[in-house]
Amino acid sequence: MDFSILNPVSITIAVVVVSTPLVFAAIGELVVEKSGVLNLGVEGMMIIGAVCAFVTIIETDSHFLAIIFAMLGGAFMATMFGILTLVLMSNQVATGLALTLFGLGLSTLIGQKYSGMSAPDFPHLFFPGLSDLPVVGRLLFSHDYMVYLSIVLVIAVSWILRSTRTGLVLRAVGENHDAAFTIGFSVLRVRMLALMFGGACAGLGGAYLSIVQTLIWVEGMTSGRGWIALAIVVFASWRPVRCMLGAYLFGGIVIFQLNAQVIGIGVQAQYLSMLPYLGTVAVLVAISASKRKSKQQAPACLGKTFFASS
Question: Which of 7, 106, 119, 224 is the most buried (most CB within 10 A)?
Answer without folding.
Answer: 119
